[in-house]
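Researcher: I'd like a candidate sequence for this fold, 373 residues long. If you have to choose between options at a position, lean toward the conservative one.
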């Protein structure tokens, strides 16, 4: 039997702009990052037995491929879900060992979950020669999250993790899955992430609730105006007319979605024209929308964005990812980073009694085989 091992390096992601837009038929602008999960795989010669060791959780998950039931432990379900999805598409899985180590902070909004799902699927695909395409790996990750974890996530995180390209953002059309790589050249500026260290739990319902609110509203808008069921077809006047039937909450959600879809195109234009000031303004507007209209921010994130606004060398900042915790993304002049981080740490800790962590990041390559773990 072949006992040779393979190592997979799977990145987290950032999203420059286009938040909560992937499941609303818009465009998003994510990138894989230069922080990874490392997964080492080896066949174990058995037909069905698998064991998966996670350094971060300090645990081993033992499984039989014939019995892929949901677990009551969160991290198990990402993996069991992936195995189930692969099983549905291919008959080639056999017993294996897998060891997982991560340098992506869990719960920080940079999608360690997509790195895990996609890295796991990618590794099994290579180990057993399953011939699944990149797009299938992306879909496997997303479906695992829907069916086993319970988060009805969009496709952005998995797509960015698998398709990332160093130095580039991915301008992804979430309806057709067409995409274009856009160089991210920020000159003297960089992307700084400030991690609130507040854990978000998308599965608890607020995320799924937003998705449901948008779907129900879109149904009504599409029926009323005879348009395709896509937010990209909805014009502001349609929302104004149907608004009273939607209820105030749903009206606010839709207002955000329509504005954010437009902001993504403006951001792409700003990037192509090297207009970082404009890009920064858009980031601040996105945060305002996420906080006031979409209501997925939290006091810690709002505090950090307010703080960013008081720093002239920051062009823009916003919460990133699903929300309710995680990171803010700051478009900041490189020379301002050390002093701002220091100031933010002191202010944040004195306000919330909680520590703030930070890291700078650049767009990296997508999930791939690696020589080292
Ligand atoms: C989470 C989901 C993504 C996306 C973002 C918000 O990260 O997994 O699909 O919806 O939230 O933009």
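Model: Candidate sequence:
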């Amino acid at each position: 039997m072949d006992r040779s091992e393979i190592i997979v390096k799977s990145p987290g992601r950032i999203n420059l702009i286009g938040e909560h837009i992937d499941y609303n038929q818009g465009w998003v602008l994510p990138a894989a990052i230069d922080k990874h999960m490392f997964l080492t795989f080896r066949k174990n010669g058995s037909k069905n037995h698998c064991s998966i060791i996670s350094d971060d959780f300090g645990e081993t998950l033992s499984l039989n491929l014939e019995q892929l039931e949901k677990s009551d432990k969160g991290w198990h379900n990402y993996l069991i879900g992936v195995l189930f999805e692969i099983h549905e598409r291919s008959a080639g899985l056999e017993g294996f060992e897998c060891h997982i180590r991560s340098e992506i902070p869990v719960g920080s909004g940079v999608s360690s979950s997509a790195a895990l799902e996609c890295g796991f699927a990618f590794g099994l695909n290579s180990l057993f020669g399953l011939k699944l395409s990149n797009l299938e790996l992306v879909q496997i990750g997303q479906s695992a999250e829907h069916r086993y974890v319970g988060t009805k996530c969009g496709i952005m995180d998995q797509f960015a993790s698998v398709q990332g390209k160093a130095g580039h953002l991915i301008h992804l059309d979430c309806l057709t899955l067409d995409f274009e790589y856009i160089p991210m050249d920020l000159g003297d500026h960089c992307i700084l992430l400030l991690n609130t260290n507040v854990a978000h739990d998308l599965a608890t319902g607020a995320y799924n609730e937003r998705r449901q609110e948008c779907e129900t509203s879109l149904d009504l808008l599409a029926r009323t105006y005879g348009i395709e069921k896509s937010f990209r077809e909805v014009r502001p006047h349609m929302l104004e007319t149907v608004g009273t039937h939607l209820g105030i909450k749903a009206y606010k959600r839709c207002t955000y979605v329509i504005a954010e879809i437009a902001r993504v195109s403006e951001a792409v234009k700003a990037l192509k024209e090297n207009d970082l000031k404009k890009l920064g303004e858009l980031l601040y507007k996105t945060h305002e929308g996420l906080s006031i209209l979409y209501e997925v921010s939290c006091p810690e994130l709002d505090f950090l964005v307010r703080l960013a606004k008081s720093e002239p060398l920051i062009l823009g900042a916003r919460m990133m990812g699903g929300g309710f915790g995680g990171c803010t993304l700051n478009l900041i002049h490189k020379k301002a980073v050390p002093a701002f981080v220091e100031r933010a740490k002191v202010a944040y800790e004195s306000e919330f009694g909680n520590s703030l962590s930070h890291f700078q990041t650049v767009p990296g390559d997508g999930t791939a085989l690696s020589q080292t773990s």
